[in-house]
Specification:
mainly alpha; 5 helices
Length: 119
């Protein structure tokens, strides 16, 4: 597979490692093999959304991070831990852009509940 432009922010391998680390830290079903093609599709869809958003004065790459919250969660890349990997992948992209998020655990939980209930 050729290197995609989004891999400068986050790669398939990094996404898998983030999932593995979160399962080790918080427990749950390790599902060592992600469901075929879903990580790639999620990362690609997040990048595609960034390209088509065309928002004036937007931080380049910010849309990728935000869209990863949605795509990694909703495409069920892993049997378990999809919320954790979606959040940590988003935070990884933001970190690579020099950005951070300040949120309580309750606020993060509510964000995912809102995403689930919206779609």
């Amino acid at each position: 597979m050729s290197t995609e432009l989004w891999q400068t922010m986050i790669s398939i391998e990094v996404t898998q490692e983030l999932h593995h680390e979160s399962i080790q830290r918080f427990g749950s079903n390790p599902s060592p093999t992600p469901l075929a093609g879903r990580i790639e599709a999620s990362l690609g869809a997040a990048w595609n959304a960034e390209l088509y958003a065309d928002i004036d004065n937007a931080v380049p790459g910010l849309g990728v991070g935000g869209c990863l919250l949605y795509y990694l969660h909703m495409r069920h890349c892993f049997v378990d831990g999809k919320e954790r990997v979606a959040w940590t992948a988003c935070m990884e992209v933001l970190r690579s852009l020099g950005l951070t998020v300040t949120a309580t655990d309750d606020e993060v939980e509510q964000l995912f509940l809102d995403i689930i209930n919206e779609y």
